[in-house]
Write a structure and sequence with these properties.
The protein is mainly alpha-helical. It has four helices and two strands. The protein has a two-stranded parallel sheet with strand order 1-2.
Amino acid sequence: MAEGLAREILGSKFVIKSAGSQPSNLVHPNAIWAMDQVGIDIREHFTKSIDDIDKEFIDNLDIAITLCSEEICPVLNNNVKKIHWMNEDPANKNLSDEQSKIVFTKVRDNLYNLIKKFFLLNA
């Protein structure tokens, strides 16, 4: 969701790549649902590991934003500016479908606000 929102809000001014420390190998159906609600289609997106991002890109990052809370955040050893936006992982298997949609919507809206603020401060 973060990549889809960031691409929509930031446009081509920033090179945006997302990855996780422990990707699930699929985009959660309720992430697709939540993004559909705001007119952003992420059906063609796929989860990636930080190890899937080329080393040259990572070595030349200006800013890295992490979103993890319960899971392990990727560690970057370069001098990149690091920003951490703690967000709960909405893919909780203990939630009903309706509860899951509520959490995905909450996380989407939180990410939207954080990305919009980032854009206003860095445009």
